[in-house]
Amino acid sequence: MSKQKVKVPDSLRDVLLEFSIAYLLEQPGDVIDFAVDFFTKLQTNRAQTGIGIGVTKPTTPDESIISQDEEPVVNRFAGRRKSVFAEQYDPEEDEEEENNKVIFPKTDEQRSRLCDSVKNILLFRALDPEQMNEILDAMFEKKVKPEDVIIRQGDDGDNFYVIESGIYNAYVGDDNKHVHTYENRGSFGELALLYNMPRAATIKAVSEGQLWALDRQTFRRILLKSAFRKRKMYEALINSVPMLKTLQNYERLNLADALIPKVFGAGERIIKQGDAADGMYFIEEGTVSIKILQDAGEVEISKLEKGQYFGELALVTHRPRAASAYAQDNVKVAFVDVDAFERLLGPCMDIMKRNIDDYESQLVKIFGSKSNIADIR
Ligand code: 1OR
Ligand code: 1OR
To answer: Which of 112, 128, 185, 296 is deepest in the core (most CB within 10 A)?
Structure first.
């Protein structure tokens, strides 16, 4: 029997690979339904942007995975046009490096400083304790002096950095535009490692400082899957909340890292009027009933649904909760704690304040007088 060689087109291989990765990451259950949805999105995306969800041309190992995108790398995280949530990764890389655990021994004092520094790192939120320990083992100290360049835009990514102390500026573009300042907290250097692309910004120390670094292999082996899954999971929610459109792509990704999923059954109270505020909520599924305590008991003042949010008022005004919130049916929400709220939702503050002004006019409509308004603010 004569053997005929069939050439597998690169585009077929890439599309199928991307489909398989998306399926494995999301584990949606029904493969056919998922395939229909996936390929429909791919087609729509191509019609709108001229490129597929991720892959339309083969990449070499040295080539940036997202280099098929015509935009400069930096703009991908600054603009708002395209999805930056659904990127590629190679799950096989996980297995290859499973046995190469990196351990930098630490004194108790070092470990305690390190634990303090990583407490609020959003990317680490999705990790279980075992993964967290592996990361802590692999991190190593790096002292820096003023003017030290820790990351240079365009370089390959080597490490991810967590700040223990010091002030650092981020600069972008040929004109080194100052885009961000880190002060004694936070982390940087995740993008090049997550998306396998050149460094998107330059990071320079302004003061003396102390950093904790994590090598690229350990970062990718442990964090890639959880970070991608979480970012993917919250893509739809973040895109469905009009207020969040004010955020830049880079800020939206950070928000996805910060969101904490919570569920409530019918009738369950989510927020109690008068309590101190610990965060705010975005509704993913279900209906939330907002009630205010009146002399005759609780009165429903509003019903909120998917894409809407609540619990922001007390955070903006620094007052106790102005109303109670109840799950009317099964409700799924994404919670942002105060810390992440202050760090990430600054750009939405004007919109939130405008909506709060609306509460006041609604209040007048509902109760026919302004007598209760002082209580809201
Ligand atoms: P990296 O691995 O690309 C540079 O190395 C790091 O700078 C990057 O990861 C981020 O951790 C950090 N856009 C892109 N990267 C930023 C930005 C940023 N700010 C800090 N980094 N923008 C500023 C958003 C407030 C958008 C600029 C157009
Ligand atoms: P919070 O942190 O005070 C209760 O916790 C939340 O209910 C509040 O944030 C808002 O997100 C949400 N007045 C006060 N809070 C309201 C109102 C409201 N609607 C929603 N919330 N209204 C004025 C009437 C008394 C709205 C009427 C439509």
So the answer is: 185
Instruction: Please report how the helices 249-258 and 216-233 are oriented relative to each other, as an axis angle in degrees rounded to 10.
Output: 90
Q: Go through the domains of the chain in sequence order and give each one's CATH number.
A: 100-221 (2.60.120.10), 241-372 (2.60.120.10)
**CA dihedral of 241, 247, 250, 256, whole degrees rounded to 10:** -30
Q: Rounded to whole angstroms, how far apart are CA atoms 94 and 215?
A: 14
Query: Does the CB atom of residue 311 touch ligand 2 within 6 A?
Result: yes
- What distance in angstroms lies between residue 217's CA and the mean position of ligand 1's atoms? 20
Q: Is the CB of 216 under 6 A from ligand 1?
A: no
343 is an annotated ligand-binding site residue: no
Burial 289-298 (b: 16+ CB within 10 A, else e): bbbbeeeeee
- What stretch of H or E contains 359? helix 349-367
Q: d(Cα 309, Cα 335) in Å, to the nearest integer?
A: 10
pLDDT values of the chain reduced to their tens digit, one per residue, 377 residues = 455 677 777 778 767 877 776 676 666 778 888 898 888 877 776 665 444 443 323 233 322 222 233 333 344 555 443 455 544 555 455 545 556 789 999 999 999 999 999 998 999 988 999 999 999 999 999 999 999 999 999 999 999 999 999 999 999 999 999 999 999 999 999 999 998 889 999 999 999 999 999 999 999 999 998 888 888 889 889 999 999 989 988 899 999 999 999 999 999 999 999 999 999 999 999 999 999 999 889 999 999 999 999 999 999 999 999 999 999 999 999 999 999 999 999 999 999 999 998 887 887 777 775 544 445 44
Question: Ligand 2: does its nearest atom lie under 6 Å from the Cβ of 294?
Answer: no
Whole-number Å distance between alpha carbons of 141 and 114: 9
* Alpha carbon of 287 to ligand 2 centroid (Å): 15
Nearest ligand 2 atom to alpha carbon 314: 2
User: What ligand has the least distance to the C-alpha of 346?
Assistant: 1
The DSSP result for 133-178, as a single string, is HHHHHH-EEEEE-TT-EEE-TTSPP-EEEEEEE-EEEEEETTTTEE
134 is in an annotated binding site: no
Whole-model pTM above 0.85?
no
